[in-house]
Amino acid sequence: MNNQQIIETINKNLQQLPEDKLNEIANFVEQLLIKSVSSTEKKQFIRSLRGKYANSLTPTDVFIEEKQSEIDWEKRNL
Fold it and tell me: Which residue range or ranges hold the DUF2281 domain (predicted)?
């Protein structure tokens, strides 16, 4: 089966489904599309939503930096 035949078969089958099942399929397809976006694109999108805080560190980033500096200090002093 080629792409066009697959699309036609899916369309034919979709026309026979009730609305609640169509909603489930729409949500499933949406999730597939989201998963197909690369992690770099996801990170860029998330950063774009931060607005004026786009370049600021998150609490997790700060924690990681502090923890790493503690580890480095321990290595130097122990």
Answer: 10-60
How far is it, in rounded angstroms, from Cα 72 to Cα 64? 12
What one-letter code names the amino acid at 56?
Answer: S
> How many residues are there in the chain?
78
Amino acid at site 42: K
pTM listed for this prediction = 0.43
Candidates 60, 57, 59, 65; CA nearest to 73 is 65
CA distance 47 to 62: 16
DSSP string, 30-67: HHHHHHHS-HHHHHHHHHHHTGGGTTSPPHHHHHHHHH
